[in-house]
Amino acid sequence: MPTRGQMARYKELRATLAREISAGRYKVGDRFPTDLELSARFRVSRHTVREAVRGLQELGLLSRQAGSGTVVRARSVEPLYTQRVDSLAELAEYAADTRLDRRQEGFVVVRQGLAELMGRPPGERWLRVAGIRRAVQGNFPLCWTEIFLAERYAGMRDRLDDGDVPIFNQVAREYGLDVTAVEQRISAIAMPPYLAEWLGAAPAEPALLVRRSYYSGAGAPFEVSLSVHPGDRYAYTARLTRDRKTENA
Amino acid sequence: MPTRGQMARYKELRATLAREISAGRYKVGDRFPTDLELSARFRVSRHTVREAVRGLQELGLLSRQAGSGTVVRARSVEPLYTQRVDSLAELAEYAADTRLDRRQEGFVVVRQGLAELMGRPPGERWLRVAGIRRAVQGNFPLCWTEIFLAERYAGMRDRLDDGDVPIFNQVAREYGLDVTAVEQRISAIAMPPYLAEWLGAAPAEPALLVRRSYYSGAGAPFEVSLSVHPGDRYAYTARLTRDRKTENA
DNA sequence: CGGCGGGCATTGTCCGGACATTTTGCGCTT
DNA sequence: AAGCGCAAAATGTCCGGACAATGCCCGCCG
């Protein structure tokens, strides 16, 4: 067959169907025509129809179910931005090259104030490990860190390594947990006086409080960490990129 | 053909090839066998090979190039976390329900200090619009915002709407820009005295400084915004989720 | 020696057909 | 009327083949 215009048939068909969905010919929730119907209507093989539909599926416009049929899921694709954090350790930014200088350790029952900081209800019991994170180079203090580990994983206590591997990672590995989500919260606070000295910072100077909650499956996080960074030594940076099969039009 | 074990051939093949890549039989950067070679080796049709390879491609293990061949791109899939920000306006959190109370406006040539805050070299000329962002409900001041617009797009100046739609969005729409990336930087500063009064905050109290740079294609951002949030009125929250086609094994 | 052009290898597109698998629902049986 | 089972419909998988489009390399020619 000679060159048609320029676009492949399945791309043309994909665009046509996307337009029809967008125009409202098929509404969200509606059944979408079957492969055979589209094949007949557009005079293309079922293979080509499937290729086109597959694309719309990946875009989230359609969903298919063997035996049941194809359903319209969305009217149009909204641009979607994602922050990619490969390996997750990147999130902690200074992952390697730092060391945890452990200062305090033990079980705590969290009360009102701390519970609020942790984003958990009061009364829960956690294993708390706190200390100063320092640069390996120069031993310079970077931040104060408090790590709260859910009681059932407290067995890790004596095997925690203060080196390169993040604590949550050690725990996840040891217990076979699958870290499915991490929530991060950043706020500004005044540097607490009792930390100022340790961090070599001025009391009450602006600081970043970073809370990270690590989830494995639904429900409560298995670890929560709180870090206080002096304002002049840290900034959190993220880059969001638009993320969609661009490909041809 | 009767039921083989249970898995579809292309899935079996996909798993086998993934294993071989992981085991190092094909190294990163190496040429991967041809469709025809695999077809012959595994006694399956080229269609089936392509289906399997397509999967490995989506996983990022392989990349193909018409005329050139298939190349190994990664040895294994590392878990990948993404923050999804649909519609991007979500990023600004209080997107709707707020209003910009414009206070200052005009061209500026940025000097050392401001340039550093903006993450740009000194000497550039930008259109600066600054003001207080308030909650529609109650007119309560939320933050001080400075928006810098690249000179080329300064024509928008008289058409800027202070309502729901973020400025960067208005500009992008007007000039047909494709916002491909947004970089966000969060740091802690002391509330500048001259802003404290306007925001109803205490001078020198901890505040969050949020910088967002909007990119359209490579090169310099077309807009940079700086916002100062009183520490007690704002926290930045993000949720990263693991994100991988689970499907069957 | 360098550039251009054509042939070859490789992936991309498309067809037609054949079963397999999954749902749904109708109709028969109890 | 309730339940079971099977047929029909829909998507999923797989084959074989054909040609198009794309890169790449090598050889010819200036």
CATH topology of the largest domain in chain A: Chorismate lyase
Q: What's the number of structural domains of chain A? A: 2
Instruction: Determine the number of helices of chain A (DSSP H or I, runs of at least 4 residues).
Output: 6
Which CATH class of the largest domain in chain A?
Answer: Alpha Beta
Shape of chain A: elongated
Helix-strand category of chain A: alpha+beta
Radius of gyration of chain A in whole Å, from Cα? 26 Å
* Architecture per CATH nomenclature, i.e. the level-2 architecture of the largest domain in chain A: 3-Layer(aba) Sandwich
H/E element sequence of chain A = HEHHEEEEHEEHEHEEE
Biggest sheet, spatial arrangement of strands of chain A? 5-6-7-10-9-8
Fraction in helix of chain A: 10-25%
Biggest β-sheet description of chain A: 6 strands, antiparallel
Could you report the average pLDDT of chain A, rounded to the nearest whole number?
A: 87
Please, what is the oligomeric state? homodimer
Contiguous uncertain segments of 5+ residues of chain A: 244-249
Going by CATH, what is the homologous superfamily of the largest domain in chain A? Chorismate lyase-like
The CA-CA distance between the termini of chain A, in Å, is 22 Å
